[in-house]
Prior knowledge:
Blueprint: E1 3-10, H1 23-29, E2 30-32, H2 46-57, E3 61-69, H3 78-95, E4 100-105, H4 117-129, E5 135-139, H5 147-152, E6 155-158, H6 167-182, E7 188-194, H7 208-218, E8 224-230, E9 244-250, H8 253-269, H9 271-274, E10 278-279, H10 281-291, E11 298-301, H11 317-325, E12 330-336, H12 338-347, E13 352-357, E14 369-386, E15 389-402, E16 409-415, H13 425-428, E17 439-442, H14 449-452, E18 458-462, E19 494-495
Parallel strand pairs: 1-3, 1-4, 4-5, 5-6, 10-18, 11-17, 11-18, 12-16, 12-17
Antiparallel strand pairs: 2-3, 7-9, 7-19, 8-9, 13-14, 14-15, 15-16
Amino acid sequence: MTRLFTACLGTETNSFSPIPTGMSVFEDTMLVRGGRHGDTPGLFAVPLIRWRERARALGWEVREGLAAFASPAGDTTRATFESLRDEILADLRAAMPVDAVMLNLHGAMIADGYPDAEGDLLARVRAIVGPAVPIAAELDLHCHLTALKVSSADVLVIFKEYPHVDVAERAEEVFELLRRTLAGEIRPTMALHDCGMLGVYPTTAEPMVSIVAGMQALEREPGVLSVSLGHGFPWGDTPEVGTRALVVADGDAALAARHAAALAERVWAARDAIVPPFLSIDAAIDRVLAAGPGTRPFVLADTADNPGIGTSGDSTFVLARLIERGVGGVALSPLWDPVATALAFDAGVGARFDIRIGGKLGPGSGAAIDARIEVKGLNPKATQPFGGAIAPLGRLAWLRIGGPDDADAIDVVVNDYRIQTFHPDCFSQAGIDPLRPRALVAKSTQHFHAGFAPIAREILYLSAPGSGSMDMAALAHRRVTRALWPRVAQPPRGPVALR
């Protein structure tokens, strides 16, 4: 009987975040042993559950190791990473002998002393199982595609879409490639090519729509098993940060290398067009005001304070400018402020009082806002959907500044669970009809798009201050010595030598 070992470890490390990633962040996000994911599994449990179901349907035995994932924040502490890594390795040793290993990783985890934490895990797994046991992994699109990761695995498959709406599909893909490998039908070989770029590339607009379609078309070509583009995570201070192309071919290293190079060059040629246009806060406000009345709201993405890339989620730069300019009819959700949330729940709906909101975790959060508010709505256990999973929002409190009319008010939804805006439920579960305001402010970079595009009059990406700054040329990396665009007009590009 085929014996499969599965496990998960990951987080998306923003090296400029003021929030260290300790064990409590994993405990609050996902820390599951023995496959006990419950009735509402998180997004990073989805591949593990799919693999378990597929394997058991084939009559395989599944040994499930630790599944640990943390909401994005700063570098993971050394003790936390080593504890979680070593638990997975102990689980693997206890499961031996195994015929295959499948890991669900993010790929952008950085720990104290480990600039490529998940690469370290993969290398140690390889050392335990030996060269003959296939290792396959699914990675987030914003992974760091390092030489160590690729050389330690047989198959790596990356999400193709941003927002990440294809997690389950990629899980099926990586399982099928592993199954075919075990059956002797294919011999995967991988090639990696460096694009020499830093950036954020939504796949909901051209030319990325066509680039993704081209990757999918290439997978139908003879000898090509999988095609991935690792966008990279620009806020990770690690030597191999940046955008890289990965191709898995069937026993043909030259074919994989040729197609990886072609994909990388196509992305390079589109570099100026694949980055979304960013507006200043005032320019975005001006566009909203100039548009006049409408039946749908503008959606303003506060990209620099997206908890999904490790920021604090409590920045006030956009809110402060709305107040300073006296712009009403706008709602913002969620703003992470456990203190303000607790005070609102204690006061109750209808209470009016002075409060200090946001701006608590450092310069990237801006200054705290002092305002007189009315508590308009409370939800003790709110959630929002994303990617086939349900994401917790914690307690939501709808605070109204100004008013009393909707058109004159600024509505702020505060919460006590740090998470980005995925879906209009961030507003509706607090009691706000998301179609009522003329503008909605979402603390997200792109994952909001799938939920908000159907109701948006127009989506505007903001270039605001914060620890998730979109000014790629100004990111203060210390460990990165490679020349990368847009810091350098013509950086070196080419194949990445595997170890």
